[in-house]
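Input record, target 12 of the design panel.
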């Protein structure tokens, strides 16, 4: 029986957990790489004097621009144009230790405020020659941030690929299981029904694997049932052939005697004719049973009628059965209690079943012992019991068991059960029908 899957075990839940875990791992790695990247960039900048060298390059470029344009320290507009064209710089110019230009406030005439130079130890000042004399320039550039940008992009790419790798590794297990299921299905298609389907986990794929294995087992059982049915049919045909051969041989023997006229008198002639008639009727009975068995074991599904109460379904059948048995010299004891349950049956099948039961009683039961008919209720099923004693004296009647097999087949098609019990001379047939809820 397939177990109900917990939502936390579903593929969606597993995929969500995989994504969250992978994202967390990628974030942790990103943080570590970011810290390491900043440490390496700062170390590189300190060891190589990269910033100082870049500042010196820009100072030289500015000096060339001033010489070319013959700028004075008061040509704020042109200084601002050059600074903006560099995009990564901000500069402050001091003349006579008074700030005369600040690229961050290009429109403001800062020399009127007489802002003095700070001359802080961490600031680098460079001498610039203007047309009106020498001035000092303090330069701040963000050109070194490209290293941080490159490091950041590298860290993001590594973290993303780590996230992608973890997700793919997690999904790969499911893909491998799907491939395994596909391979095992191909094994089943090739006829290897004994191969057990692998069931891993508790998710939808595991349920699929379990369903496939259940289907495999059901199919094996079906094949086994068909095999048993074929064997049973072969057995019945073989036994029927043997049973038919005996009366045919007798009929041929008596017919030969009658043709040759080797009988003693008219009474013996009538005796032979009676025996031929009896054997012929026996043959007809056997062929009727065989026809009924082949009809019942066909592939046609039985159509059950609407649910009826136990009493309504069986009252008339029991009345007719008891009357018929009384006519045949049997005494029946009717001990049925009308169970208050609803049952679905096929009336046609029920008539055949009762005919087979009464036919078996007439042929095999001891008339001196009563035929007991009683009711039975087991779990979710209800039915009745026929009980009789087997005949001990008189002519032995051969049995092919086709009637009993037909009863079992018809009961099975109606969803019921047929049990046969025998203790010494006591023979009991039990029929059970599924109870239908009101």
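The sequence produced for target 12 reads:
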């Amino acid at each position: 029986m397939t177990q109900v899957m917990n939502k936390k075990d579903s593929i969606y839940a597993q995929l969500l957990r995989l994504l969250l875990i992978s994202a967390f791992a990628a974030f942790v790695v990103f943080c570590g790489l970011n810290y390491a990247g900043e440490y390496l960039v700062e170390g590189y900048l300190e060891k190589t004097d990269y910033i100082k060298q870049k500042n010196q390059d820009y100072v030289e470029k500015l000096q060339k621009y001033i010489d070319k344009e013959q700028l004075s320290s008061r040509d704020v507009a042109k200084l601002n144009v050059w600074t903006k064209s560099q995009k990564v710089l901000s500069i402050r110019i001091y003349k006579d230790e008074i700030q005369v230009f600040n690229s961050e406030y290009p429109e403001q005439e800062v020399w009127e405020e007489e802002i003095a130079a700070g001359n802080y130890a961490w600031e680098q000042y460079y001498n610039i020659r203007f047309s009106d004399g020498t001035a000092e320039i303090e330069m701040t550039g963000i050109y070194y941030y490209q290293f941080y940008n490159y490091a950041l992009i590298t860290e993001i790419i590594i973290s993303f690929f780590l996230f992608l790798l973890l997700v793919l590794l997690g999904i790969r297990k499911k893909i491998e299981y799907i491939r395994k299921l596909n391979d095992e299905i191909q094994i089943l298609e090739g006829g290897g029904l004994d191969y057990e389907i692998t069931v891993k986990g508790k998710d939808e794929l595991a349920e699929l694997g379990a369903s496939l294995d259940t289907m495999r087992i059901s199919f094996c059982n079906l094949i086994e049932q068909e095999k048993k049915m074929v064997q049973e049919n072969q057995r019945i045909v073989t036994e029927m052939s043997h049973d038919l051969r005996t009366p045919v041989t007798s009929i041929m023997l008596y017919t030969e005697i009658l043709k040759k006229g080797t009988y003693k008198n008219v009474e013996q002639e009538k005796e032979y004719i009676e025996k031929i008639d009896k054997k012929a009727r026996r043959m007809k009975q056997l062929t009727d049973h065989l026809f009924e068995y082949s009809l019942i074991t066909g592939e046609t599904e039985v159509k059950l009628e609407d649910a009826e109460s136990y009493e309504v379904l069986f009252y008339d059948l029991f009345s007719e059965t008891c009357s018929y048995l009384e006519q045949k010299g049997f005494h029946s004891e009717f001990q049925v209690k009308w169970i208050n349950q609803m049952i679905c049956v096929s009336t046609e099948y029920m008539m055949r079943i009762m005919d087979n039961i009464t036919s078996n009683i007439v042929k095999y039961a001891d008339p001196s012992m009563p035929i007991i008919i009683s009711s039975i209720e087991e779990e979710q099923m209800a039915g009745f019991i026929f009980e009789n004693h087997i005949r001990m004296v008189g002519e032995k009647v051969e049995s092919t068991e086709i009637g009993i097999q037909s009863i079992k087949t018809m009961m099975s098609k109606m969803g019921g059960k047929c049990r046969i019990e025998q203790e010494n001379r006591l023979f009991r047939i039990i029929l059970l029908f599924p109870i239908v809820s009101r």
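The chain has a mean pLDDT of 80.
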